[in-house]
Amino acid sequence: MKKLLLPSAWLLASLCPAPAATRINIASFSTILTEIAEKVGGDHVTVFALVKPGVDPHEYEPTPSDLKRVSDAQLILTSGKHLENYLNKLQEASGGKAELLKVGDLLPSLTMKAEEGSSGMTLDPHWWNSVTNVEQATRVVRDELSRLDPADKADFAKNAEAYLAQLDDLNRWVKRKVAELPRDKRKLVTSHDAFQYFAREYGFSISAIEGVSTETEPSNRHVAELIDRIRKEGVKAIFTESTLNPKVTKEITRETGAKVGGVLDVDGLGTVEASTYEGMVRHNVSTIVDALK
Ligand SMILES: [Zn+2]
Predict the structure, then answer these.
(1) How far is the CA of 194 from the centre of ligand 1 (A)?
(2) How far is the CA of 206 from the centre of ligand 1 (A)?
(3) Helix H or strand E encompassing 69
(4) Inter-helix orientation angle 64-71/87-94, to 10°
(5) CA 213–ligand 1 middle distance (angstroms)
(6) What is the CATH number of domain 22-173?
(7) Per-residue pLDDT tens digits for 269-278
(8) What is the DSSP string of 141-168?
(9) Fold match between 22-173 and 181-292?
């Protein structure tokens, strides 16, 4: 058998002289992971961004053409921590051909109330609002790409190192910026509860106007409690997202005298200044610190 196989293998190799042109197809369901995969993968990957910048990942559902991309992919990247409720659709579309990597599942977890008023707890999916977590996610993606394409391991290592250096600089900047705020002013009131990982890392306390997801409307009781708390603690500003009902914001600012400190990009990359991860973090942190000072 061996003698028979050798010439055909040789023939095959001489007919296909361009292995360098093969790229890993990646289907990404997180704007943050799209950036990481592009930075680390460089020329060795093609990344299909299926959750696009500015799209609310809590409400996204894959379209048939998104699922077609999944069927062509060797690697599927998701945020994990139960953010995606359509994983079975992805697995079905891929037919077991792709590796499904739930990156957030490999990072430390915080929990949060599943729903306002309920006692059930769920994993908090918003790991990307801590720069340290994004650094860890970069290492996870680097290791996975190296496993799928060992020949290009050195390139993935080099690319990851450069991106990690940028994230290190960013994290140092965040810490310097936050240090402008005295500890007793680090009180963050945001639209939905997306800043636990941020608060833990940079020493803030948090209250959310909505719950875990952008899909729930706050109850009157919850808003009343929040107004009470803002008054008592002398919180100077609250922060919104484009998805929040403006009536609620108006009620809170009218009742407490707190101002609207700005609009934050909390669920992933957006457009303009938040079109890169660094831009998103700089925008959020500057907005928060400058309004609470
Ligand atoms: Zn969110």
Answers:
(1) 5
(2) 14
(3) helix 64-71
(4) 50
(5) 5
(6) 3.40.50.1980
(7) 988 889 999 9
(8) HHHHHHHH-GGGHHHHHHHHHHHHHHHH
(9) yes
Where do the structural domains in the chain lie, given as residue ranges?
22-173, 181-292
Ligand 1 centre to CA of 277 (Å) is 16
pLDDT tens, position by position, 140-191:
999 999 999 999 999 999 999 999 999 999 999 999 999 999 999 999 998 8
Structure tokens at 279: 């831009």
pLDDT, tens digit, 9 for 90 and up, residues 204-245: 999 888 765 666 678 888 889 889 999 998 999 999 876 666
Q: How far is the CA of 193 from the centre of ligand 1 (A)?
A: 7
Distance, CA 72 to ligand 1 centroid (Å)? 29
- Token couple for 149: 């394409």
Q: pTM (2 decimals)?
A: 0.89
| DSSP at 212 | S
What are the pLDDT digits (tens) for 41-50? 999 999 999 9
- What is the Å distance from ligand 1's center to 17 Cα? 47
- In CATH, which superfamily holds the domain spanning 181-292? Nitrogenase molybdenum iron protein domain (3.40.50.1980)
